[in-house]
Amino acid sequence: MNTFLNRYKSDFKATFNLALPIITAQVGVMLMGFADTVQVGRMAQGSVPALAAAADANGIFFNIAIIGYICLQVVAPLVSSAQSSNNPGQCKQLLRASVVVSLIMSVICALLIVLIGLNIDLLKQPKEIKSMTLDFLWIITVSIFPSFVFSAIKSFTDGLSHTKVAMQITVSALLLNVVINHFLINGYKNIIPALGLNGAGYATLTARIYMAVAIIIYTLRDKAFKPYLQASTQGLDSIKTLIGKIMKLGIPSGFQGFSEVAAFYGAVVMMGWISLPHKAAHQVAIGFVSMTFMAATGIGAAGGIRVGSGMGEKSKKAIIDAGTSALLMGLIFMGTCSIIFLVFNDFLASYVKDDQVVALAAELIIWGGIFQLFDGTQAVSVGILRGIADVNVPTIITFIAYWVVGLPMCYFLGFVLDLKHIGIWIGLTSSLLVSASLLSWRFYAKANKLWH
User: How far is CA 42 from CA 95, 196, 243, 357, 406, in A?
Assistant: First the structure.
């Protein structure tokens, strides 16, 4: 055991130092949505329909936006590999290409969100929350443009191992979001009207604009990035090539995220078939699960950057050790979260001012605790697989796990066997188990075949 730990000690430390700021930034992004849920959930009146509407709007938004977010994440390992190969000009071109891709994906994703919103009746959700859902959805859809620009530049800075840049900006944006939420959701005397759920939407939009502007200014002014920004390049042709490369790697990666997020949103839709309180409870529970998931993706992103560095060095040992240390870190972190969810489920759900929603959410948080290890393993595996530019087979794996196994199990257990909300979350657990097993196996199978 000591030999095993000593072997990965240095890799674990390097991954941890790189991952911690990424995790903080990733969780900070989720905390913005979670802050919306908490502050809307504490509204004196209308908290249950507002939570259900937020579940629908956020579900539609993230189902589509996740494709762009993850598409842009593939830039970080590419930048890391270019840096390890001592090619600053390539790093600069990757930054330029990623910003162009962010604008392209913003337009595509925004149009898809609008299309789904205009056909929201197909989801057969409670009619009383339709207008509230759409109003909130249109506001947060506008935020996709600054959010993607931030993600593009974040991938550049993360790839150069300057992960604290995005962390600092995200934490400050979170604080800004909470403050604006307070005034816009509840109003302030006779100066600011109470906008309810829409107030949370405007707060999110403001925070995301701030994040984009802040990271642009930071990157242009910080001395650490000048060698890359001032490096000589090969012109527009290389940018076009890199745009194609990012899209080729990023879009399949984005659909990996879509497969999971869409499956979880499918669970939101099914909860709406049961009752409005069930749907609100799902939104409460998924807020906690989403935060731990984003932390795990942060570990996966850090692992992917270190794996990408190993690719630049053409070192199989460096690649496998970096991937293993990331998986171990993910298991330790998610195992800790699992214990917290299982022990403090009632306390975590207690912020909502509706006893029925609290009771249902507490039950779901228990299941969130049960699948933490599976969720962490699959999230980290996806990240380190991107580091070796393996995206097509993992996309097929995630589709099978969530759409062939997960969603049918959710429906069968929830409605055929009438286990309702518990059955739906058991179905989600089964999809995470399949995804975790196959993706972690895929990493080692693929890594061991490099340079044979």
Answer: 41, 11, 44, 12, 32
Transcribe 194-255 into DSSP letters: --THHHHHHHHHHHHHHHHHHHHHHHHH-GGGHHHHTS----HHHHHHHHHHHHHHHHHHHH
Whether pTM > 0.70 for this model: the answer is yes
CA 137/CA 389 separation, integer angstroms? 34
Q: What are the distances in angstroms from CA 418 to CA 132, 267, 424?
A: 30, 15, 10
Buried b (16+ CB within 10 A) or exposed e, 134-156: bbbbebbbbbbbbbbbbbbbbbb
Q: Is there a contact between 116 and 64 (Cβ–Cβ < 8 Å)?
A: yes
Furthest-apart CA pair in the chain: how many Å? 71
Taking the C-alpha atoms of 122, 124, 126 and 130 in order, what is their torsion angle to the nearest 10 degrees? 0
Burial class (CB in 10 A: 0-12, 13-18, 19+), 317: exposed
CA distances from 17 to 10, 34, 116, 271 (A): 11, 26, 40, 40
Closest Cα to residue 197, out of 287, 141, 134? 134
CA 179, distance to chain mean position in Å, is 23
Tokens of 125: 């959700």
d(CA 379, CA 393): 15
- Within 8 A by CB and 6+ apart from 445, the residues are none
Tens digit of pLDDT per residue, the chain (452 long)?
555 556 667 778 888 888 888 888 877 777 777 777 777 766 645 567 887 788 788 878 888 888 898 889 889 888 988 888 888 888 889 999 999 999 999 999 999 999 999 998 887 777 778 888 899 999 999 999 999 999 999 999 988 888 888 889 999 999 998 899 888 887 777 777 778 788 888 999 999 999 999 999 999 999 989 888 887 776 666 788 899 999 998 888 888 888 887 888 788 889 888 888 888 888 788 888 888 888 898 899 889 889 988 888 888 888 999 999 999 999 999 999 999 999 999 999 887 778 888 999 999 999 999 999 999 999 999 999 988 988 889 999 999 999 999 999 999 999 999 999 999 999 999 999 999 999 999 999 999 888 65
CA gap 146, 231 in Å, rounded: 26
- In Å, what is the CA distance from 80 to each residue of 9, 20, 173, 231, 310? 22, 17, 26, 16, 9
Please tell me the distance from the alpha carbon of residue 93 to that of residue 113, in angstroms, as a whole number: 30
